[in-house]
Write a structure and sequence with these properties.
Elements: E1 4-9, E2 25-30, E3 33-38, H1 42-52, E4 60-64, H2 77-84
Antiparallel strand pairs: 1-3, 1-4, 2-3
Length: 86
């Protein structure tokens, strides 16, 4: 499987910068919202993120097929995303 970019909603929770999982990199957009660069399928990413969060935390993981439209996110977010879609 090639690299996939996911958007994950973590209900306001932040992951530690050194959080280990089936991803190459995490890019926090806002507290509780993160881009995930991974070679793994959505289920593997979902379960790894779930393991880093308190029990019963709402969680959403969605695969992105293109650079999304957004504003007001963390500095460098657009460049980081565009670099993954070459």
């Amino acid at each position: 499987m090639s690299d996939v970019l996911y958007l994950a909603y973590l209900d306001g929770h932040e992951l530690p910068p050194d959080a280990q999982g089936p991803w190459r990199e995490l890019f926090p957009l806002q507290p509780g919202l993160v881009f995930v660069d991974s070679e793994q399928h959505r289920s593997a990413v979902y379960h790894a993120l779930k393991d880093h969060l308190p029990i019963d935390t709402p969680l959403l993981v969605a695969e992105l097929s293109e650079v999304p439209k957004f504003k007001g996110m963390a500095p460098g977010a657009l460049a980081w995303t565009r670099a993954r879609y070459g």
